[in-house]
Amino acid sequence: MPSPLPNPIRILIKGPSNVGWFSPMGGPRTNFGFPRACEEALLQAGRPVEMRAPTVPSELVKNAVRRWEEEMIGFSPDVIVMLYGQYESVHLFLPWWLERHANSQVFPWRRWSAIYRTYIVRPVWMFLAKLQSKVDAAVDPTIRRKKHRKVIADLEQIVHHSQVMQGAMVILFELLPPAKRFRSWFPGMTRRLEVMNADIEDLVNRTNLPNVRYFRVSELVDKYFDGDVDLATPDGFHYTPELHRLVGEKLAREIAEWADTQPHLQIEPNRSRLRSVRPSEPTG
Predict the structure, then answer these.
(1) CATH assignment of the domain containing 84
(2) Do strands 212-215 and 169-173 pair parallel, antiparallel, or not at all (unpaired)?
(3) Tens digits of residue pLDDT in 21-60
(4) Distance (Å, rounded) from C-alpha 30 to C-alpha 180?
(5) Which residues, in sequence order, are CB contacts of 146 under 8 Å at separation 6+?
(6) pTM of the model
(7) Which domain covers residue 193, as residue numbers?
(8) Is 276 a domain residue?
């Protein structure tokens, strides 16, 4: 009779394009987003994994609240990772739907749609974005506090659902500020993200549970990129392949340590051999 297999760690990762988009894109297949890098590290340690990362560019946390039943109840994740609050901090007043309409790549490229997008939508969007950048540089960047509070309330609701169900491990990501390329376009975004990060960390502290944690991406930027966000996210927002892998490996170690405390996920002691993050020269 074959030996029984251990239960896989079920991991659900939610967020916008930062979850799977690279800076730059177009690299080899061995460039893994951090969900797959995390999965690889756990598998190489002998830990079975069932990973899901149903992410959407410009995803809002309010949409994750709407879909939590279909994404979480049946799948019953052991670990829920959320990277939210970044997109909600980009714009001072431009609406989400307009940005998505102007920049979405999910549309049929036909003659009339191409004319519409090239000569109407994009010029209007650029005009409004330039206007917004001027206003954003002149007013309090956190003036829309109601919008900010909604993000935190939505995150708290998902955390609550995860604990009521089966006490899943929940990891909320620290959000990196925009790199130089986009700081002139979104002058107030850095400040908005500072406030957002402080409130996300406060949410974790208020929850006061060992399985609800705050994941500091900046520690990896400090260690491997000399603290330079322009090297870590050269296109302005998205992680380099190297940072994706470093995040995935760090995330895997944290998940594995937690899984060792869970009876249904424990494996033979000699089978878990997670690699340490390999030494790396600062990117530059």
Answers:
(1) 3.40.50.1110
(2) parallel
(3) 888 888 888 899 999 999 999 999 999 999 999 888 888 8
(4) 28
(5) none
(6) 0.86
(7) 9-92+142-271
(8) no
